[in-house]
Amino acid sequence: MKLFLDTASIEEIREINRWGVLGGVTTNPSLLQKEAAEPDKVWRQILEEVAGDVSLEVTAPDADEMVAQGRTLAAMGPNAVVKVPMTPDGLEAGTRLVSEGVRINVTLVFSPAQAILAAEAGAYIVSPFLGRVDDVASDGMALLRSICDIYAVQGYETKVLAASLRHPMHVVESAHAGADIATMPFEVFTKLVKHPLTDIGMERFQADWEKLQHQLEGEAST
């Protein structure tokens, strides 16, 4: 399972990219708004910084405008993936873009039926939003498992991207469910590396190493 960062912050992307484990990035209009910067400039910076797939979302309201915007986004880089919403216009735009060789990510998916539509539209990625499903007292992880099972039975090639992940266990459970990709905010990504026993172990190793150095220095001076 590839690990993506859900952000438009180039600083966050550079930090996780430094670790060598960043598989890609997902962006959306809300994340871009937080950066308060020209979207084209932000998108181009991210595409240059990240070797993997970068999802760029259309904002136009109807299919024709989505297609036009999608073509522009796709042309920004070979790793660009165009996000279209799970709506009738989004599906129309998506299928048209796919016919032109553009890779699409169908976003705002909240049911297995919608995931089937995305696969039939030829989506490269489908993005079920697990945390938001949990927010309405339903089971986001059950949704993910259902989509992964259906795709396996039907032989769909569309990649399943677990989105709206709120904590590390969402990531672990997504891996168990068979998701191809998990995308998460910076604060969740940085929690993946943390464990109190790792911290304790590092402290003990460092303390013992320093003791050894003192012992060696003492022996050398006698």
Would you mind describing this structure in some detail?
The chain is of the alpha/beta class and 222 residues long. The chain has a single domain (2-195), classed as TIM Barrel (Alpha-Beta Barrel), CATH 3.20.20.70. It contains eleven helices and eight strands. An eight-stranded parallel β-barrel has the order 1-2-3-4-5-6-7-8, surrounded by eight helices. The protein starts with a strand and ends with a helix. The model has no long low-confidence stretch (mean pLDDT 96).
H/I helix tally: 11
Q: Largest sheet at a glance?
A: 8 strands, parallel, barrel
Strand order of the largest sheet: 1-2-3-4-5-6-7-8
Order of helices and strands: EHEHHEHEHEHEHHEHEHH
Integer average pLDDT: 96
CATH architecture tag: Alpha-Beta Barrel
CATH first level: Alpha Beta
Helix content: 55-70%
Ranges where pLDDT stays below 50 over 5 or more residues in a row are none
Instruction: Indicate the CATH topology.
Output: TIM Barrel
Q: In the residues, how many domains can be counted?
A: 1
